[in-house]
Every structure is written in structure tokens, then in C-alpha cells.
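Deliverable D5.2: sample structural annotation.
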Amino acid sequence: MTNKRALSWSAALRDLKDDHMRRQDVREERLRTAQGLRGTPALALSAWRGRSGRRYVVGIHPAGEFDPEEMTEAVTIAVRRDTTGIAQMVSVASSEESPRDHLRRVWLDRARRGGATELHIHRLADGETERHAIVDDLRPETIEPRQV
């Protein structure tokens, strides 16, 4: 009697496809940052992977002491962490350079009330169109305003 295992290629390919589809969820991918030159503290950086598979590097800021003026021309992700340290997105928005400071403050207050303890800021988008595309890629399935 031989000890051969039959492999179902169709089942293996289906499982591989299902695994790929599960990985397309929006999620944070923590970055390891090394200490800077001459002993300066490491930058607080992370990255978010959108549904498209694109990765967006962000700077991490505490939500409690954040100034809404820092949100100018950026994609801002409001985040809360669970007890295991996993990031949960509260909200994501794009902001332009405009006098709409009141709307930024309203969005920030709403995110804080939603439990956000961190703000992840992505500043590497080239323009308004690209920022809106990033928000659409990162946005959870709930409907939110696109711009603050």
C-alpha cells in the first residue's frame, strides 16, 4: 500500500483566491523604524494598505493634542487601537488648503468622540484628485463625507 495524498488542485486554487480576497481588506501594516542619526528618537511611522493593494505611509500623531491646521493638503485617518494594539479606522478624510477650519474641527471632534486616539497623516499625494482617490481606496464600506 502506498502512502500518497491526492491533492485537489481546484480546492487549492480556490483557497488561494479566497486568501487573496481576504487580504484586500483595508488594514494597517506597522513599520519598524530605526533610531535616527546621533540618537534622535525614531519617527512614528506606519502604513495603511488600501483595497486596491496600494500602500500609504503615514505619520502618527496623538489625537488629543492635534492642531487641525496640520491637516492641510493631506489624507487624515482617525484611528483607535484595541487592547491588542490592532488599529481600527474610525474615519478617513481628505483636506485641502482652504479657510474651512471649522469643518476640520468638527470632523476631528467627531473622530475623537468615536474613540480615535491617533491621527495618521498621509502627505505624499500629489494633488486633490489623488487625495480623493486615496480616501476612496481606504474608506470603509460606510458612507462618509469625502472632504473636510
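Annotation notes: The mean pLDDT is 80. DSSP finds three helices and six strands in the chain.
The annotation will be released with the project's public dataset once the embargo ends.
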